[in-house]
Amino acid sequence: MPFSHHSHSGQFCLHAENTLEEVVQTAVSMQMDLYALTEHMPRDNEDLYPEEVRSSYTAATLAKQFDGYFHEAQRLQKVYASAIKLLIGMEVDWIRPSSLGLIQGLLGRYPFDLFIGSVHHVHTIPIDFDKKLYFEAREKAGGTNEQLAEDYFDLQYEMLKALKPPIVGHFDLIRLLSDDPEASFVQWTGVWQKILRNLDFIVDYEGLVELNSAGLRKGMSEPYPKAEICKEFLARGGAFTLSDDSHGIKQVGTNYGRCLSFAEKTGIISITFLEKGAATKDSRFPGISTNAVSLVELKERPGFFYPEGF
Q1: 39, burial (CB in 10 Å: exposed 0-12, middle 13-18, buried 19+)
Q2: N or C: lower Cβ tally within 10 Å for the chain?
Q3: Residue 115 region, left (φ>0) first, then alpha (ψ -120 to 50), else beta?
Q4: pLDDT in tens, 149-165
Q5: Helix/strand/coil (H, E, C) string of 14-72?
Q6: Phi and psi at residue 239, in whole multiples of 5°?
Q7: Per residue in 67-108, pLDDT tens?
């Protein structure tokens, strides 16, 4: 059963394309069984992206846009109920300790099915927007990729402890704009120990780590997270889910075949997904439970996962 737990649309995200309904229609046309809608949470004025500043956005603009997203997602959930199971959530941006209040307010206001816990900023500077900002964050961290990675995983740990997100988004996003995105984290003892600490914590509260295929479409040889991280999480009994992190219809379900091949080579034998059910796993999300499907079962859909054969 094809699914994704992480997606965006141009209707509610300036660096994405297409309307939310067009994204849903594409998922339906691809015969996805379940698709999670997870637009970015609104942020404060001091944390606007350059594209938002250029468009004269404010925190109020983002808050109004997000409210519009939630109600549109509810409408689509009803309209397409017979064609696809839609879950409604958000991707949080953990920027500083005060992010907690904003996130808790959103969780209290909107009856989400899930949320993705992500870190896109280090020292309050975006680390995945462009090289210029990445370099600024690196300088603030001390000047090296190693120091920036340490700070990234420390900030991620703060987010994990404060929120215990049901799904952890693009776990090792910090490598995207680094000097060598293919480099092993093991070379840096301090960074590696922080990664293992974070993985231990996720296992302890039974969170999911997403296999995020966006890493592949952005030119890397592995999805997020790298195989070396996946193997450690797997050895600890951790569970993975699957996401396309699409930012428009062209990216729905992209590189899923490569993602599954990666999972198989890494030793992952099943993929977990969220669904509406009687057995609630997380009291914050009544009626949402987890289930799992084996890689063997997923490969029975070769037309979707392996359009060129396998």
Answers
A1: buried
A2: C
A3: beta
A4: 999 999 999 999 999 99
A5: CCCCCCHHHHHHHHHHCCCCEEEEEEECCCCHHHCCHHHHHCCCCHHHHHHHHHHHHHH
A6: -115, 145
A7: 999 999 999 999 999 999 999 999 999 999 999 999 999 999
Residue 308's pLDDT is 42
Which residue type is seen at 124?
A: T
Residue given tokens 């600490």 in the structure block: 197
What are the structure tokens assigned to 37, written together?
């809608």
Res. 309 pLDDT band, cuts 50 70 90:
very low
> What integer pLDDT is reported at residue 1 of this predicted model?
64
3-class SS string, the chain: CCEECCECCCCCCCCCCCCHHHHHHHHHHCCCCEEEEEEECCCCHHHCCHHHHHCCCCHHHHHHHHHHHHHHHHHHHHHCCCCCEEEEEEEEECCCCCHHHHHHHHHHHCCCCEEEEECCEECCEECCCCHHHHHHHHHHHCCCHHHHHHHHHHHHHHHHHHHCCCEECCCCHHHCCCCCCCCCHHHCHHHHHHHHHHHHHHHHHCCEEEEECHHHHCCCCCCECCHHHHHHHHHCCCEEEEECCECCHHHCCCCHHHHHHHHHHHCCCEEEEEEECCCCCCCCCCCEEEEEEEHHHHCCCHHHHCCCCC
Confidence of residue 298 (pLDDT cuts 50, 70, 90): confident
State in Å, rounded, how far the first CA of the chain is from the last one: 17
Residue with the two structure tokens 């040889």: 221
At which residue do the structure tokens 């939630």 appear? 70
